[in-house]
Model the fold of this input.
Amino acid sequence: MEIPKYLDLYRKELLLKNYSENTIKNYSSQVDLFLRGHTHLFTEPSKINEAAIKTWLLQLRHSL
Done:
């Protein structure tokens, strides 16, 4: 998966929506962590399913 490419597209989308630089940095960081942790399961973001996201969010919550 070309993570830098997808992160750049994501950042541009957030810029178009007028998100602040801090928000873009924080959101992009979390998306980067998610994508890097799931490269073995998904070859591109469009293949990521809701169940994988929910599982990851629950794991994050339990690690706090």
Notes: The mean pLDDT is 93. Residues 3-63 form one domain.
